[in-house]
Design brief:
single chain; 2 helices; mainly alpha
Length: 61
């Protein structure tokens, strides 16, 4: 599932929880959104690290 879909799913759960008064569903939605944000951040860091690694390899050649 894409990041946008995961974020939307989490937001939908959060809103549904607020509307229905279901604190557990609301918290689950916030948790889903936080997990997606963490996944995106880790992916960005990984990509930057690969770029740095590649640039260091080129400098040695």
């Amino acid at each position: 599932m894409s990041s946008a879909m995961d974020k939307a799913k989490g937001k939908l759960k959060e809103v549904a929880g607020k509307i229905t008064g279901n604190e557990r569903l609301e918290a689950e939605g916030r948790t889903d959104q936080a997990k997606t944000k963490i996944r995106e951040t880790v992916k960005g860091v990984r990509e930057r690290a690969e770029g740095i690694k590649d640039s260091l390899k080129r400098d040695r050649s």
